[in-house]
Amino acid sequence: MAPKSKKTEAATASAPVAPVAAPAALPKQSSQSASVKWDRVVYDVVAHYNKTTPQRTKLIDLFMVYLLVVAAIQLIYCVVVGDYPFNAFLSGFISAIGQFVLTASLRVQTNTTDKNEFPTISPERAFADYIFCSLILHFFVVNLVN
């Protein structure tokens, strides 16, 4: 094998190196003041939600949280204990997540602040669509269980 030339070292050594300016130091805040700001942000978001959200939408949101908790419990149970009746796990998990998606659709269609998104759909029509789609979802879930 031929010896390697040292041209690359000479080329890089002769190039002038410009000094790099250090970035300006940002003033450090204590972790206590940062946590106070985050606490205040969370408090403001919750206060705004409670003040401006209608009771019907809050009920839909609570049901969506319940569906997520049910799906999480089923997933944790499947990981910890096992998924022996896999069809049962799959149908329960699909049922919870599918119902969550349908409920999110209902929330979007019945939201009073976004009336211009669905001007022709009344809340009663949206609820009827929700019930119909829920029946179809649960029909498939029951058939998946066997």
UniProtKB/TrEMBL annotation:
Q: Where in the cell is it found?
A: Endoplasmic reticulum membrane
Q: Which UniProt keywords apply?
A: Endoplasmic reticulum, Membrane, Transmembrane, Transmembrane helix
A Pfam family cross-referenced in the UniProt record is DAD
State the signal peptide span. Answer: none
Membrane topology qualifier = Multi-pass membrane protein
Pathway(s) annotated for this protein in UniProt = Protein modification; protein glycosylation
Q: Which GO terms describe its biological process?
A: protein N-linked glycosylation
Q: Which InterPro entries match?
A: DAD/Ost2
Gene Ontology cellular component annotations, sorted alphabetically: oligosaccharyltransferase complex
Instruction: Work out whether the entry's keyword set contains Translocase.
Output: no
* Transmembrane parts of this sequence: 59-82, 127-145
Q: Per its UniProt record, what PANTHER family does this chain match? A: DOLICHYL-DIPHOSPHOOLIGOSACCHARIDE--PROTEIN GLYCOSYLTRANSFERASE SUBUNIT DAD1
Family label: Belongs to the DAD/OST2 family.
Under the subunit heading, UniProt states: Component of the oligosaccharyltransferase (OST) complex.
Name the job this protein performs: Subunit of the oligosaccharyl transferase (OST) complex that catalyzes the initial transfer of a defined glycan (Glc(3)Man(9)GlcNAc(2) in eukaryotes) from the lipid carrier dolichol-pyrophosphate to an asparagine residue within an Asn-X-Ser/Thr consensus motif in nascent polypeptide chains, the first step in protein N-glycosylation. N-glycosylation occurs cotranslationally and the complex associates with the Sec61 complex at the channel-forming translocon complex that mediates protein translocation across the endoplasmic reticulum (ER). All subunits are required for a maximal enzyme activity.
Name of the protein in its database record: Dolichyl-diphosphooligosaccharide--protein glycosyltransferase subunit OST2
